[in-house]
Design goal:
2 domains; disordered N terminus; 2 strands; mainly alpha; elongated
């Protein structure tokens, strides 16, 4: 089976040739331009998961027709697929939260809140810390 027959096309070929593409990490986005970067990364990971799934199936098939199973090889490939799938799931969760306007969780009760919320809708706890210049803060030694 040639590389061009696998799903993912050129990206799959690059993944098999380039070592740096084989173990990508999901990085948290930067505030500016993050959505486009997250979408691009999601597409790359989806292609990688499809390629790894295809490869694992082909590997199992080849071992079955030869009646020679190497469980260590299958387990290693399955672990690689599982890691990529987990990264893809986390990226999709981040994108879904960002598109829904969810910005974080309340430190008191754990309820999600939207960007710019000042108080938790569930427990009423303040979400934003008050920032004061050092000169305006009360002096602890004066008390």
């Amino acid at each position: 089976m040639s590389v061009n027959q696998r799903p993912g096309g050129q990206a799959a070929e690059q993944a098999s040739v380039s070592g740096s593409v084989l173990a990508p990490e999901v990085a948290l986005p930067t505030p500016s331009g993050a959505m486009a970067e997250l979408r691009r990364r999601r597409l790359e990971l989806a292609e990688r998961v499809a390629t790894l799934t295809w490869d694992l199936g082909g590997l199992a098939y080849e071992m079955a027709i030869r009646d020679h199973y190497r469980l260590d090889v299958i387990a290693r490939k399955a672990a690689e697929l599982q890691e990529a799938d987990a990264q893809l799931g986390e990226l999709q969760r981040l994108l879904a939260n960002a598109e829904a306007g969810i910005d974080g969780q309340c430190r008191s009760c754990g309820a999600v809140h939207s960007r710019g919320a000042g108080f938790c809708w569930h427990c009423g706890a303040p979400l934003l810390h008050e920032a004061r210049p050092a000169i305006l803060r009360p002096d602890p030694s004066a008390a």
